[in-house]
Design goal:
Layout lengths: L3 H4 L6 E3 L2 H4 L6 E10 L5 H11 L9 E7 H4 L10 H17 L2 E13 L8 H25 L8 H7 L3 H8 L15 H18 L2 H5 L4 H7 L6 H4 L6 H19 L9 H24 L11 H20 L16 H19 L3 H26 L9 H5 L6 H7 L6 H19 L14 H7 L6 H13 L1
Parallel strand pairs: 1-3
Antiparallel strand pairs: 2-3, 2-4
Length: 482
Protein backbone atom coordinates (compact mmCIF):
# COMPACT_ATOMS: atom_id res chain seq x y z
CA UNK A 1 0.00 0.00 0.00
CA UNK A 2 1.15 3.54 -0.83
CA UNK A 3 1.09 6.22 1.82
CA UNK A 4 -0.86 9.44 1.26
CA UNK A 5 2.37 11.32 0.51
CA UNK A 6 3.38 8.72 -2.11
CA UNK A 7 -0.04 8.90 -3.78
CA UNK A 8 0.39 12.68 -3.98
CA UNK A 9 3.41 12.19 -6.24
CA UNK A 10 1.42 10.34 -8.89
CA UNK A 11 -0.35 12.16 -11.76
CA UNK A 12 -4.08 12.52 -11.24
CA UNK A 13 -5.75 9.44 -12.71
CA UNK A 14 -9.11 11.01 -13.52
CA UNK A 15 -9.83 14.66 -14.17
CA UNK A 16 -12.80 16.26 -15.90
CA UNK A 17 -13.12 19.91 -16.87
CA UNK A 18 -16.56 21.39 -16.27
CA UNK A 19 -18.67 20.07 -19.14
CA UNK A 20 -21.62 22.49 -19.16
CA UNK A 21 -19.51 25.61 -18.65
CA UNK A 22 -17.39 24.55 -21.61
CA UNK A 23 -20.14 24.32 -24.23
CA UNK A 24 -21.49 27.87 -24.04
CA UNK A 25 -20.88 29.33 -27.50
CA UNK A 26 -20.55 28.23 -31.14
CA UNK A 27 -17.26 26.47 -31.78
CA UNK A 28 -16.83 25.25 -28.20
CA UNK A 29 -15.59 21.65 -28.02
CA UNK A 30 -15.23 19.17 -25.16
CA UNK A 31 -13.24 15.92 -25.54
CA UNK A 32 -12.90 12.90 -23.30
CA UNK A 33 -9.68 10.96 -23.96
CA UNK A 34 -7.51 8.21 -22.55
CA UNK A 35 -3.79 8.96 -22.77
CA UNK A 36 -0.85 6.69 -22.06
CA UNK A 37 2.04 8.14 -20.05
CA UNK A 38 5.36 8.15 -21.94
CA UNK A 39 8.73 9.83 -21.63
CA UNK A 40 11.65 10.58 -23.93
CA UNK A 41 14.14 10.50 -21.11
CA UNK A 42 14.85 8.48 -18.00
CA UNK A 43 12.10 9.13 -15.48
CA UNK A 44 12.06 7.36 -12.12
CA UNK A 45 8.44 8.32 -11.52
CA UNK A 46 7.25 6.47 -14.63
CA UNK A 47 9.10 3.36 -13.44
CA UNK A 48 7.34 3.62 -10.08
CA UNK A 49 3.98 4.05 -11.84
CA UNK A 50 4.59 0.98 -14.01
CA UNK A 51 5.57 -1.15 -11.03
CA UNK A 52 2.56 0.09 -9.07
CA UNK A 53 0.19 -0.67 -11.98
CA UNK A 54 1.66 -4.16 -12.48
CA UNK A 55 -0.20 -5.35 -9.37
CA UNK A 56 -3.53 -5.08 -11.16
CA UNK A 57 -5.58 -7.06 -8.64
CA UNK A 58 -5.94 -4.04 -6.35
CA UNK A 59 -4.53 -1.14 -8.40
CA UNK A 60 -5.74 0.93 -11.32
CA UNK A 61 -3.57 1.07 -14.41
CA UNK A 62 -1.86 4.36 -13.59
CA UNK A 63 0.10 4.31 -16.86
CA UNK A 64 -3.09 5.56 -18.57
CA UNK A 65 -4.72 8.80 -17.46
CA UNK A 66 -8.32 9.72 -18.24
CA UNK A 67 -9.13 13.30 -19.05
CA UNK A 68 -12.19 15.34 -19.94
CA UNK A 69 -10.76 18.45 -21.62
CA UNK A 70 -12.49 21.67 -22.61
CA UNK A 71 -10.46 22.14 -25.77
CA UNK A 72 -11.54 25.72 -26.49
CA UNK A 73 -10.69 26.90 -22.96
CA UNK A 74 -8.05 24.66 -21.37
CA UNK A 75 -6.18 24.10 -24.64
CA UNK A 76 -6.82 27.42 -26.38
CA UNK A 77 -3.06 28.08 -26.69
CA UNK A 78 -2.59 24.84 -28.67
CA UNK A 79 -5.54 25.13 -31.06
CA UNK A 80 -4.52 24.54 -34.63
CA UNK A 81 -7.28 23.92 -37.13
CA UNK A 82 -4.87 22.21 -39.52
CA UNK A 83 -3.69 19.56 -37.07
CA UNK A 84 -7.03 18.40 -35.64
CA UNK A 85 -8.39 17.83 -32.16
CA UNK A 86 -6.29 14.82 -31.13
CA UNK A 87 -2.88 16.51 -31.64
CA UNK A 88 -4.24 19.62 -29.91
CA UNK A 89 -5.37 17.72 -26.83
CA UNK A 90 -2.15 15.69 -26.79
CA UNK A 91 0.04 18.80 -26.92
CA UNK A 92 -2.06 20.39 -24.19
CA UNK A 93 -1.76 17.37 -21.88
CA UNK A 94 1.95 17.04 -22.60
CA UNK A 95 2.60 20.59 -21.54
CA UNK A 96 0.68 20.23 -18.29
CA UNK A 97 2.13 16.85 -17.27
CA UNK A 98 5.67 17.74 -18.24
CA UNK A 99 5.61 20.81 -16.01
CA UNK A 100 4.15 18.89 -13.04
CA UNK A 101 5.72 15.42 -13.37
CA UNK A 102 8.24 15.47 -16.20
CA UNK A 103 6.02 13.15 -18.28
CA UNK A 104 4.33 13.23 -21.66
CA UNK A 105 1.31 11.43 -23.07
CA UNK A 106 0.22 9.56 -26.17
CA UNK A 107 -3.53 9.89 -26.75
CA UNK A 108 -5.18 6.55 -27.49
CA UNK A 109 -7.12 7.34 -30.65
CA UNK A 110 -9.70 4.61 -30.10
CA UNK A 111 -10.82 6.37 -26.90
CA UNK A 112 -11.48 9.92 -28.10
CA UNK A 113 -15.02 11.25 -27.75
CA UNK A 114 -15.65 14.90 -28.62
CA UNK A 115 -18.83 16.97 -28.29
CA UNK A 116 -19.41 20.35 -29.91
CA UNK A 117 -21.74 23.19 -28.97
CA UNK A 118 -25.32 22.53 -30.08
CA UNK A 119 -24.29 19.35 -31.84
CA UNK A 120 -27.19 17.79 -33.81
CA UNK A 121 -29.02 15.06 -31.90
CA UNK A 122 -28.60 12.66 -34.80
CA UNK A 123 -32.06 11.05 -34.95
CA UNK A 124 -32.33 8.44 -37.68
CA UNK A 125 -34.86 6.04 -39.18
CA UNK A 126 -34.16 3.34 -36.60
CA UNK A 127 -34.98 5.79 -33.79
CA UNK A 128 -38.35 6.63 -35.34
CA UNK A 129 -39.24 3.00 -36.02
CA UNK A 130 -38.47 2.02 -32.41
CA UNK A 131 -40.51 4.99 -31.14
CA UNK A 132 -43.46 3.85 -33.24
CA UNK A 133 -43.20 0.28 -31.91
CA UNK A 134 -42.98 1.59 -28.33
CA UNK A 135 -46.09 3.71 -28.89
CA UNK A 136 -48.00 0.71 -30.23
CA UNK A 137 -47.01 -1.32 -27.16
CA UNK A 138 -48.21 1.46 -24.85
CA UNK A 139 -51.54 1.60 -26.72
CA UNK A 140 -51.89 -2.17 -26.38
CA UNK A 141 -51.30 -1.85 -22.62
CA UNK A 142 -53.93 0.86 -22.34
CA UNK A 143 -56.45 -1.07 -24.43
CA UNK A 144 -55.79 -4.33 -22.59
CA UNK A 145 -56.10 -2.68 -19.17
CA UNK A 146 -59.36 -0.96 -20.13
CA UNK A 147 -60.77 -4.19 -21.55
CA UNK A 148 -59.94 -5.99 -18.32
CA UNK A 149 -61.34 -3.16 -16.19
CA UNK A 150 -64.77 -2.97 -17.90
CA UNK A 151 -65.36 -6.68 -17.36
CA UNK A 152 -64.47 -8.26 -20.69
CA UNK A 153 -62.08 -10.69 -19.04
CA UNK A 154 -63.99 -13.73 -20.18
CA UNK A 155 -63.85 -12.94 -23.88
CA UNK A 156 -63.41 -16.05 -26.00
CA UNK A 157 -62.10 -14.47 -29.19
CA UNK A 158 -58.44 -14.89 -30.03
CA UNK A 159 -58.00 -11.14 -30.38
CA UNK A 160 -59.65 -10.49 -27.04
CA UNK A 161 -57.46 -13.01 -25.22
CA UNK A 162 -54.38 -11.55 -26.88
CA UNK A 163 -55.41 -8.06 -25.82
CA UNK A 164 -55.86 -9.19 -22.21
CA UNK A 165 -52.25 -10.34 -22.20
CA UNK A 166 -51.34 -6.63 -22.08
CA UNK A 167 -53.57 -5.88 -19.09
CA UNK A 168 -51.47 -4.21 -16.37
CA UNK A 169 -53.85 -5.43 -13.67
CA UNK A 170 -53.70 -9.05 -14.81
CA UNK A 171 -49.94 -9.05 -15.25
CA UNK A 172 -49.45 -7.49 -11.82
CA UNK A 173 -51.41 -10.36 -10.28
CA UNK A 174 -49.29 -12.89 -12.16
CA UNK A 175 -46.10 -11.10 -11.14
CA UNK A 176 -47.08 -11.36 -7.46
CA UNK A 177 -48.03 -15.03 -7.75
CA UNK A 178 -45.62 -17.26 -5.83
CA UNK A 179 -44.08 -20.39 -7.31
CA UNK A 180 -46.34 -22.75 -5.35
CA UNK A 181 -49.68 -21.10 -6.09
CA UNK A 182 -51.60 -23.50 -8.29
CA UNK A 183 -53.41 -26.84 -8.49
CA UNK A 184 -50.27 -28.94 -7.95
CA UNK A 185 -49.71 -29.28 -4.15
CA UNK A 186 -46.11 -30.45 -4.55
CA UNK A 187 -45.19 -27.06 -5.96
CA UNK A 188 -46.12 -25.53 -2.60
CA UNK A 189 -42.69 -26.47 -1.27
CA UNK A 190 -41.05 -24.41 -4.02
CA UNK A 191 -42.28 -21.10 -2.61
CA UNK A 192 -38.96 -20.78 -0.85
CA UNK A 193 -37.35 -20.20 -4.25
CA UNK A 194 -39.28 -16.93 -4.56
CA UNK A 195 -37.60 -15.63 -1.42
CA UNK A 196 -34.23 -17.00 -2.50
CA UNK A 197 -34.42 -15.31 -5.91
CA UNK A 198 -35.54 -12.04 -4.34
CA UNK A 199 -32.68 -11.98 -1.84
CA UNK A 200 -30.16 -12.94 -4.52
CA UNK A 201 -31.44 -10.26 -6.90
CA UNK A 202 -31.11 -7.62 -4.19
CA UNK A 203 -27.55 -8.75 -3.47
CA UNK A 204 -26.66 -8.68 -7.18
CA UNK A 205 -27.95 -5.10 -7.47
CA UNK A 206 -26.05 -4.09 -4.32
CA UNK A 207 -22.83 -5.60 -5.71
CA UNK A 208 -23.14 -3.99 -9.15
CA UNK A 209 -24.21 -0.51 -8.07
CA UNK A 210 -20.76 0.60 -6.77
CA UNK A 211 -19.09 -0.38 -10.06
CA UNK A 212 -20.01 3.01 -11.54
CA UNK A 213 -17.71 4.70 -9.03
CA UNK A 214 -14.69 3.02 -10.63
CA UNK A 215 -15.45 4.46 -14.08
CA UNK A 216 -14.36 7.93 -13.00
CA UNK A 217 -13.67 9.10 -9.47
CA UNK A 218 -11.82 11.93 -7.79
CA UNK A 219 -10.51 9.55 -5.13
CA UNK A 220 -9.13 6.38 -6.78
CA UNK A 221 -6.87 5.86 -3.76
CA UNK A 222 -9.92 5.08 -1.63
CA UNK A 223 -11.02 2.33 -4.02
CA UNK A 224 -7.53 0.83 -4.15
CA UNK A 225 -7.11 0.84 -0.37
CA UNK A 226 -10.53 -0.69 0.27
CA UNK A 227 -9.27 -3.95 -1.22
CA UNK A 228 -7.13 -4.36 1.91
CA UNK A 229 -10.20 -4.19 4.15
CA UNK A 230 -11.33 -7.72 5.14
CA UNK A 231 -14.93 -6.53 5.37
CA UNK A 232 -14.88 -5.78 1.62
CA UNK A 233 -14.10 -9.43 0.80
CA UNK A 234 -17.82 -10.22 0.78
CA UNK A 235 -18.46 -7.58 -1.88
CA UNK A 236 -15.54 -8.41 -4.16
CA UNK A 237 -16.26 -12.16 -4.07
CA UNK A 238 -19.96 -11.63 -4.69
CA UNK A 239 -19.64 -12.67 -8.33
CA UNK A 240 -20.15 -16.29 -7.26
CA UNK A 241 -23.69 -15.58 -6.06
CA UNK A 242 -25.04 -15.67 -9.62
CA UNK A 243 -24.51 -19.43 -9.54
CA UNK A 244 -27.65 -19.71 -7.39
CA UNK A 245 -29.68 -18.59 -10.42
CA UNK A 246 -28.35 -21.46 -12.51
CA UNK A 247 -28.98 -23.99 -9.74
CA UNK A 248 -32.57 -22.82 -9.24
CA UNK A 249 -33.15 -22.68 -13.01
CA UNK A 250 -31.96 -26.26 -13.46
CA UNK A 251 -34.04 -27.48 -10.53
CA UNK A 252 -37.27 -25.85 -11.73
CA UNK A 253 -36.85 -27.09 -15.30
CA UNK A 254 -36.21 -30.69 -14.27
CA UNK A 255 -38.87 -30.77 -11.55
CA UNK A 256 -41.62 -29.36 -13.78
CA UNK A 257 -40.70 -31.78 -16.57
CA UNK A 258 -40.90 -34.70 -14.15
CA UNK A 259 -44.37 -33.57 -13.03
CA UNK A 260 -45.40 -33.20 -16.67
CA UNK A 261 -44.14 -36.71 -17.37
CA UNK A 262 -46.75 -38.13 -14.99
CA UNK A 263 -49.51 -37.03 -17.39
CA UNK A 264 -47.86 -37.74 -20.72
CA UNK A 265 -44.54 -39.18 -21.89
CA UNK A 266 -41.78 -36.74 -22.74
CA UNK A 267 -40.37 -37.37 -26.22
CA UNK A 268 -37.93 -35.80 -28.64
CA UNK A 269 -40.67 -34.01 -30.60
CA UNK A 270 -41.32 -31.79 -27.55
CA UNK A 271 -37.80 -30.37 -27.73
CA UNK A 272 -38.42 -27.64 -30.38
CA UNK A 273 -41.55 -26.47 -28.58
CA UNK A 274 -39.75 -26.40 -25.24
CA UNK A 275 -36.87 -24.36 -26.68
CA UNK A 276 -39.30 -21.94 -28.35
CA UNK A 277 -41.29 -21.44 -25.13
CA UNK A 278 -38.08 -20.84 -23.21
CA UNK A 279 -36.94 -18.28 -25.78
CA UNK A 280 -40.30 -16.50 -25.72
CA UNK A 281 -40.16 -16.11 -21.94
CA UNK A 282 -37.51 -13.39 -22.18
CA UNK A 283 -37.27 -12.42 -25.85
CA UNK A 284 -40.05 -9.77 -26.01
CA UNK A 285 -38.89 -7.89 -22.91
CA UNK A 286 -35.24 -8.27 -23.86
CA UNK A 287 -35.98 -6.99 -27.37
CA UNK A 288 -37.72 -3.87 -26.04
CA UNK A 289 -34.86 -3.05 -23.67
CA UNK A 290 -32.30 -3.76 -26.40
CA UNK A 291 -34.10 -1.50 -28.86
CA UNK A 292 -34.28 1.31 -26.29
CA UNK A 293 -30.57 1.04 -25.46
CA UNK A 294 -29.66 1.05 -29.16
CA UNK A 295 -31.76 4.11 -29.99
CA UNK A 296 -33.40 6.50 -27.53
CA UNK A 297 -31.24 6.04 -24.46
CA UNK A 298 -28.39 8.03 -26.00
CA UNK A 299 -30.72 11.04 -26.47
CA UNK A 300 -31.74 11.24 -22.81
CA UNK A 301 -28.69 13.02 -21.43
CA UNK A 302 -25.24 14.43 -21.94
CA UNK A 303 -21.99 14.80 -20.06
CA UNK A 304 -18.25 14.25 -20.23
CA UNK A 305 -18.62 10.45 -20.15
CA UNK A 306 -21.91 10.18 -22.02
CA UNK A 307 -20.46 9.39 -25.44
CA UNK A 308 -17.77 7.06 -24.11
CA UNK A 309 -20.37 5.00 -22.25
CA UNK A 310 -23.92 5.43 -23.57
CA UNK A 311 -23.23 6.25 -27.22
CA UNK A 312 -20.63 3.49 -27.43
CA UNK A 313 -23.09 0.95 -26.03
CA UNK A 314 -25.78 2.10 -28.46
CA UNK A 315 -23.43 1.70 -31.40
CA UNK A 316 -22.36 -1.73 -30.24
CA UNK A 317 -25.97 -2.85 -29.73
CA UNK A 318 -26.83 -1.82 -33.27
CA UNK A 319 -24.00 -4.03 -34.43
CA UNK A 320 -24.55 -7.01 -32.09
CA UNK A 321 -28.34 -7.00 -31.53
CA UNK A 322 -28.73 -10.24 -33.46
CA UNK A 323 -26.50 -12.13 -31.02
CA UNK A 324 -28.45 -10.76 -28.06
CA UNK A 325 -31.82 -11.85 -29.40
CA UNK A 326 -30.48 -15.34 -30.16
CA UNK A 327 -28.95 -15.49 -26.65
CA UNK A 328 -25.45 -16.28 -27.84
CA UNK A 329 -23.98 -12.87 -26.94
CA UNK A 330 -22.08 -14.40 -24.04
CA UNK A 331 -19.82 -15.98 -26.66
CA UNK A 332 -19.15 -12.58 -28.29
CA UNK A 333 -16.11 -11.01 -26.62
CA UNK A 334 -15.31 -7.34 -26.01
CA UNK A 335 -18.85 -6.22 -26.76
CA UNK A 336 -20.21 -3.25 -24.80
CA UNK A 337 -23.81 -4.08 -25.67
CA UNK A 338 -25.60 -4.82 -22.40
CA UNK A 339 -22.77 -6.93 -20.96
CA UNK A 340 -24.73 -7.42 -17.73
CA UNK A 341 -27.21 -9.66 -19.61
CA UNK A 342 -24.60 -12.36 -20.24
CA UNK A 343 -26.39 -14.66 -17.79
CA UNK A 344 -29.54 -14.65 -19.97
CA UNK A 345 -27.53 -16.24 -22.76
CA UNK A 346 -25.88 -18.72 -20.39
CA UNK A 347 -29.22 -19.67 -18.84
CA UNK A 348 -30.82 -20.12 -22.26
CA UNK A 349 -28.02 -22.40 -23.42
CA UNK A 350 -28.12 -24.46 -20.23
CA UNK A 351 -31.91 -24.72 -20.46
CA UNK A 352 -31.61 -26.10 -23.98
CA UNK A 353 -29.14 -28.68 -22.67
CA UNK A 354 -31.55 -29.60 -19.86
CA UNK A 355 -34.38 -30.02 -22.37
CA UNK A 356 -32.15 -32.18 -24.56
CA UNK A 357 -31.34 -34.47 -21.62
CA UNK A 358 -34.97 -34.91 -20.54
CA UNK A 359 -36.52 -35.07 -24.03
CA UNK A 360 -34.02 -37.39 -25.69
CA UNK A 361 -33.12 -39.58 -22.69
CA UNK A 362 -36.32 -41.17 -21.41
CA UNK A 363 -34.84 -43.94 -19.27
CA UNK A 364 -34.50 -42.81 -15.62
CA UNK A 365 -31.19 -44.65 -15.25
CA UNK A 366 -29.70 -43.19 -18.43
CA UNK A 367 -31.05 -39.78 -17.48
CA UNK A 368 -29.14 -39.92 -14.18
CA UNK A 369 -26.01 -40.89 -16.06
CA UNK A 370 -26.49 -37.97 -18.47
CA UNK A 371 -26.85 -35.48 -15.59
CA UNK A 372 -23.81 -37.00 -13.87
CA UNK A 373 -21.82 -36.66 -17.10
CA UNK A 374 -22.91 -33.01 -17.39
CA UNK A 375 -21.71 -32.45 -13.81
CA UNK A 376 -18.30 -33.96 -14.58
CA UNK A 377 -17.96 -31.85 -17.74
CA UNK A 378 -18.97 -28.79 -15.72
CA UNK A 379 -16.20 -29.48 -13.19
CA UNK A 380 -13.46 -30.28 -15.71
CA UNK A 381 -14.15 -27.62 -18.36
CA UNK A 382 -13.40 -24.51 -16.24
CA UNK A 383 -10.20 -26.13 -14.99
CA UNK A 384 -9.06 -26.66 -18.59
CA UNK A 385 -9.79 -23.00 -19.42
CA UNK A 386 -7.84 -21.82 -16.37
CA UNK A 387 -4.76 -23.92 -17.20
CA UNK A 388 -4.70 -23.52 -20.99
CA UNK A 389 -5.63 -19.81 -21.13
CA UNK A 390 -3.83 -18.83 -17.92
CA UNK A 391 -6.96 -17.40 -16.29
CA UNK A 392 -7.93 -16.70 -12.72
CA UNK A 393 -10.05 -19.53 -11.18
CA UNK A 394 -12.65 -16.93 -10.16
CA UNK A 395 -13.54 -13.51 -11.55
CA UNK A 396 -11.50 -10.95 -9.62
CA UNK A 397 -13.25 -7.58 -9.55
CA UNK A 398 -10.09 -5.50 -9.75
CA UNK A 399 -10.31 -1.70 -10.22
CA UNK A 400 -9.60 -1.87 -13.96
CA UNK A 401 -12.03 -4.76 -14.46
CA UNK A 402 -14.74 -2.75 -12.71
CA UNK A 403 -13.87 0.42 -14.67
CA UNK A 404 -14.34 -1.45 -17.97
CA UNK A 405 -17.50 -3.15 -16.65
CA UNK A 406 -15.79 -6.55 -17.00
CA UNK A 407 -15.89 -6.37 -20.82
CA UNK A 408 -12.12 -6.50 -21.44
CA UNK A 409 -11.24 -9.06 -18.76
CA UNK A 410 -10.00 -12.45 -20.12
CA UNK A 411 -11.45 -14.38 -17.17
CA UNK A 412 -14.86 -12.78 -17.69
CA UNK A 413 -14.82 -13.45 -21.43
CA UNK A 414 -13.48 -17.00 -21.43
CA UNK A 415 -14.59 -18.45 -18.09
CA UNK A 416 -17.22 -16.49 -16.21
CA UNK A 417 -19.88 -15.74 -18.82
CA UNK A 418 -19.84 -18.84 -21.04
CA UNK A 419 -22.69 -21.31 -20.88
CA UNK A 420 -20.55 -24.44 -20.68
CA UNK A 421 -18.36 -23.05 -17.87
CA UNK A 422 -21.48 -22.56 -15.70
CA UNK A 423 -22.69 -26.10 -16.26
CA UNK A 424 -21.74 -27.60 -12.91
CA UNK A 425 -24.34 -25.79 -10.78
CA UNK A 426 -27.01 -26.22 -13.42
CA UNK A 427 -26.32 -29.96 -13.35
CA UNK A 428 -26.57 -29.87 -9.55
CA UNK A 429 -29.99 -28.27 -9.96
CA UNK A 430 -31.11 -30.97 -12.40
CA UNK A 431 -29.85 -33.76 -10.13
CA UNK A 432 -31.37 -32.22 -7.01
CA UNK A 433 -34.77 -32.00 -8.70
CA UNK A 434 -34.58 -35.69 -9.65
CA UNK A 435 -33.63 -36.57 -6.08
CA UNK A 436 -36.42 -34.49 -4.54
CA UNK A 437 -38.97 -35.95 -6.95
CA UNK A 438 -37.84 -39.49 -6.13
CA UNK A 439 -38.01 -38.89 -2.38
CA UNK A 440 -41.52 -37.47 -2.73
CA UNK A 441 -42.56 -40.51 -4.71
CA UNK A 442 -41.37 -42.72 -1.83
CA UNK A 443 -43.14 -40.54 0.80
CA UNK A 444 -39.87 -39.51 2.41
CA UNK A 445 -40.52 -37.64 5.68
CA UNK A 446 -37.79 -35.09 6.25
CA UNK A 447 -39.20 -34.01 9.62
CA UNK A 448 -37.86 -37.20 11.22
CA UNK A 449 -34.32 -35.93 10.64
CA UNK A 450 -34.78 -32.44 12.04
CA UNK A 451 -32.76 -31.51 15.14
CA UNK A 452 -35.29 -30.86 17.89
CA UNK A 453 -34.74 -28.29 20.59
CA UNK A 454 -35.41 -30.85 23.28
CA UNK A 455 -32.61 -33.20 22.18
CA UNK A 456 -29.35 -33.29 24.23
CA UNK A 457 -27.25 -32.98 21.05
CA UNK A 458 -28.90 -29.70 20.14
CA UNK A 459 -28.58 -28.29 23.66
CA UNK A 460 -25.03 -29.39 24.42
CA UNK A 461 -23.31 -29.47 21.03
CA UNK A 462 -25.18 -27.82 18.17
CA UNK A 463 -26.01 -24.41 19.64
CA UNK A 464 -22.95 -23.74 21.84
CA UNK A 465 -20.48 -21.03 20.89
CA UNK A 466 -17.34 -22.98 21.73
CA UNK A 467 -18.49 -26.00 19.68
CA UNK A 468 -18.78 -23.79 16.58
CA UNK A 469 -15.34 -22.28 17.02
CA UNK A 470 -13.54 -24.28 14.32
CA UNK A 471 -15.16 -22.61 11.28
CA UNK A 472 -14.81 -19.18 12.85
CA UNK A 473 -11.09 -19.84 13.33
CA UNK A 474 -10.79 -20.93 9.70
CA UNK A 475 -12.38 -17.62 8.64
CA UNK A 476 -9.95 -15.62 10.76
CA UNK A 477 -6.99 -17.54 9.35
CA UNK A 478 -8.17 -16.97 5.78
CA UNK A 479 -8.38 -13.21 6.34
CA UNK A 480 -4.88 -13.16 7.84
CA UNK A 481 -3.46 -15.11 4.89
CA UNK A 482 -5.22 -12.83 2.44
Amino acid sequence: MFSASEYALLPQLFFLDNYHNCLMAPGDTYCYVDARLVTNETNQLLTVIQEFSAYSKTHFDRTIVHRGVCVTQTCRDYLDNSSGLVPTVEACLNSTLYKSHGLQTKVMKDVVYCTKFEEPAGYDLVDYVVALVMLVLVLFNVAGSLTDHVGCAETKSTGGRLLLCFSIKRNWVRLRTAAGDGPEPRLERLKCFTGLKTITTILVIMAHSPINIAISTSDPEFLENIYHNPAATFLFNGTLIVQTFFLVSGFLLAYNLLLMEEKRPISWDMLPKGVLIRWLRFAPVNAVVLAFVATWQRHLGSGPLWKSLVHKEASQCRHDWFYNLLYVHNYVDNSDCMPHTWYLGADMQLSVLGLVIFCLVTSPKLRKMAVAAAFVVGVVTPAIHVVVQNLSPILIVSPEVARNIFVRDPTFNNLYKRGHTNLVNYAVGLGTAMLVYRLQQHKFDVTKYKVRETEPTFNNLYKRGHTNLVNYAIGLTSDMLR
